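Researcher: Let's do a round of design. I'm pasting the structure tokens now; please hold your answer until I've finished.
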């Protein structure tokens, strides 16, 4: 059995949610160990847009400046009807003077994780164990025991609490027998990272390309012309021949643009699912381990970040006996409610619009609503404020009152 300070908080998964929770706890003086199955940070194309409302939280973790330095800030959105060519563009400028950060951050998810890992190195009481896959979890009233496969050997690691941040296939969630309710979509998403100077060719920095065949999200990831182009195809098509089908999408959507370089791609199964509970005793679920959504509109990690900002703060307070552990039940209930009632339905609507707008009457109604935003400032502001509704404010004030009773 590995020796470990029994006060250590264990975190399964060195994805963004695991590592940012680790950083938050480490900054609060709590010993923390991250257990990661892989040998390095996962680099497949995933999140790259961080909505304006998540940026205060990055600032709270001391990551904002480094993230902006490595990525870039942008304000505009374009919706483009592929068949008619109509474009409707608007931007976060409308939030200037109302919110602290009236812009989104664009940054590869792996870069966000690397920045957090760099910061984590400043704390002697924080460590990451790579090549360490969680295989099972048990717990008592006073602690957790996590079975792992570490460099091929079985081991048992003990700690005080466990955060399951091991992604949608979470071994932590499965080991506890927690259901992952919802549905799996019958389409496959193909996320590609491509290099080209699309702005010079007239493309805006983020385009939602609406079409029932060539629907896609096209968005700039870095200032050196790395872009994300995510399209969708039938899940029954063979995954092995994605590369053979891919050029057709580029030829149709970017006609006449020669020399688009494929930097990487990854196929994804998509779900709308939530764990039936986000807390089981001393184990808390966060990020994709707790909820999984299709990525249209970038609400997946947005939800995971909002889990993180309230979770590390509440757990640190419980460990320091500044709050009753009831606050963690409220974490579980509130974050599940926000995902199920707000984030997941919105992501489903986004997917429907971008990839499945086959009914011309419904599509025209959607386009009319988008056009309407250009002349109705209140409606525009209401729409742009949406990512704020995914946030849970600090759970601590009422928890502190609870402990004084
Ligand atoms: C194409 C695409 C584009 C997206 N774009 C956006 C976007 O722009 N904005 C947005 O907000 N969201 C986006 N998302 C969603 C976002 O990528 C996820 O919500 C995010 O990755 C969740 O982070 P996480 O840390 O919870 O889980 P993950 O990123 O899945 O990390 C889980 C980690 O746990 C590790 N792990 C797994 N099993 C074990 C185990 N048994 N033991 C130990 N470690 C384990 C994995 O190796 C991994 O490192 C996108 C997703 C996709 C697929």
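Researcher: That's everything. Go ahead.
Model: Designed sequence:
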């Amino acid at each position: 059995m590995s020796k470990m300070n029994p006060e250590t908080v264990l975190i399964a998964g060195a994805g963004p949610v695991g590592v940012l929770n680790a950083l938050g706890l480490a900054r609060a003086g709590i010993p923390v160990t991250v257990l990661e199955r892989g040998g390095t940070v996962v680099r497949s194309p995933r999140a790259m847009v961080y909505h304006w409302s998540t940026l205060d939280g990055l600032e709270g973790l001391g990551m904002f400046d480094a993230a902006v330095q490595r990525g870039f800030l942008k304000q505009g959105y374009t919706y483009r009807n592929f068949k008619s060519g109509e474009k409707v563009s608007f931007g976060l400028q409308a939030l200037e003077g109302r919110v602290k950060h009236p812009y989104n951050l664009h940054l590869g998810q792996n870069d966000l994780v690397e920045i957090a890992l760099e910061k984590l190195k400043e704390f002697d009481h924080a460590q990451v164990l790579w090549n360490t896959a969680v295989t099972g979890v048990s717990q008592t009233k006073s602690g957790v025991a996590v079975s792992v496969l570490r460099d091929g050997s079985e081991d048992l690691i003990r700690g005080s609490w466990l955060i399951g941040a091991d992604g949608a296939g979470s071994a932590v969630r499965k080991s506890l027998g927690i259901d992952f309710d919802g549905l799996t979509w019958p389409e496959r998403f193909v996320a590609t990272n491509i290099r080209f100077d699309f702005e010079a060719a007239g493309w805006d920095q983020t385009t939602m390309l609406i079409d029932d065949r060539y629907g896609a999200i096209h968005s700039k990831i870095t200032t050196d012309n790395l872009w994300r182009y995510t399209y969708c195809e039938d899940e029954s098509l063979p995954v092995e021949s994605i590369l053979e089908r891919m050029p057709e999408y580029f030829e149709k959507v970017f006609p006449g643009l020669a020399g688009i370089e494929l930097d990487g791609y990854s196929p994804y199964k998509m779900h709308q699912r939530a764990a039936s509970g986000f807390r089981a005793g001393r184990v808390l679920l966060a990020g994709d381990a707790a909820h999984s959504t299709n990525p249209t509109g970038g609400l997946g990690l947005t939800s995971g970040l909002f889990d993180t900002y309230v979770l590390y703060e509440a757990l640190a307070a419980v460990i320091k006996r500044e709050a009753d552990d009831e606050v963690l039940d409220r974490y579980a209930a509130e974050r599940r409610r926000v995902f199920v009632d707000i984030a997941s339905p919105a992501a489903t609507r986004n997917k429907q619009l971008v990839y499945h707008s086959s009914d011309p009457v419904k599509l025209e109604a959607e386009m009319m609503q988008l056009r309407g935003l250009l002349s109705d400032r209140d409606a525009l502001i209401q729409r742009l404020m949406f990512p704020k509704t995914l946030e849970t404010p600090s759970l601590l004030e009422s928890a502190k009152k609870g402990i004084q009773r």
